[in-house]
UniProtKB/TrEMBL annotation:
Pfam families attached to this UniProt entry: Lysine_decarbox
InterPro entries the record matches: LOG (IPR005269), LOG_fam (IPR031100)
Species: Algisphaera agarilytica
Keywords from the named record: Cytokinin biosynthesis, Hydrolase
Record field: catalytic activity: AMP + H2O = D-ribose 5-phosphate + adenine
Designated name of the protein: Cytokinin riboside 5'-monophosphate phosphoribohydrolase
GO biological process, one term: cytokinin biosynthetic process
Length: 180
């Protein structure tokens, strides 16, 4: 069944080429599976590569970008829908509302914040949408270790482990989102 998959990832143009290749594959596979991309609306970095990958394979792209970020992130004007919001909070809300599932690719502080929020919201039962962390080349290994540290020290409950899945395979990630 086709889903609206919200992808959180880096907009940086300084990422390692291997991560760009992963973004290209995500875009291709999303489109081939008939899924719609919901994302931050940028044309640079991994964000832009996923969006262009979706379009290159005939898929549908919904970008959501704050008005103030439109020039900073160089909006992907070829989006099938480009939704402008007033604030970052409105952006995340719009993306969350449109999403059936969340796929997290490598990213920086913004991606970390988005990931933390969707995991926390799932734990608090604000949504029950699947979350998959794509971990190519062990990109998120240190963060996942920190998550385990939270649990081991009692700062978070064991059940947090059930809020998300982790894989280094794009194919497994998309299959996991479709099966949840």
């Amino acid at each position: 069944m086709p889903l609206n998959i919200c992808v959180y990832c880096s907009s940086s143009t300084r990422v390692e080429p291997a991560f760009g290749e992963v973004a290209d594959e995500v875009g291709m596979r999303l489109a081939q599976a008939g899924h719609t991309l919901v994302y931050g609306g940028g044309s640079t970095g991994l964000m832009g590569r996923v969006a262009r990958g979706v379009h290159a394979h005939g898929g549908h792209v919904i970008g959501v970008i704050p008005e103030s970020m439109k020039s900073v992130e160089i909006a992907y004007l070829d989006s099938d829908e480009l939704i402008e919001t007033k604030t970052m909070r409105e952006r995340k809300h719009e993306m969350d509302e449109r999403a059936d599932a969340f796929l997290i690719l490598p990213g920086g502080f913004g991606t970390l914040e988005e990931l933390s929020e969707v995991i926390t919201h799932r734990y608090l039962k604000f949504h029950d949408k699947p979350i998959v962390i794509l971990n190519p080349d062990g990109f998120y290994d240190h963060l996942l270790g920190l998550f385990e540290h939270f649990i081991e020290t009692g700062m978070a409950k064991d059940v947090y482990r059930e809020m998300y899945r982790v894989t280094d395979s794009v194919e497994v990630a998309l299959d996991s989102l479709s099966l949840c």
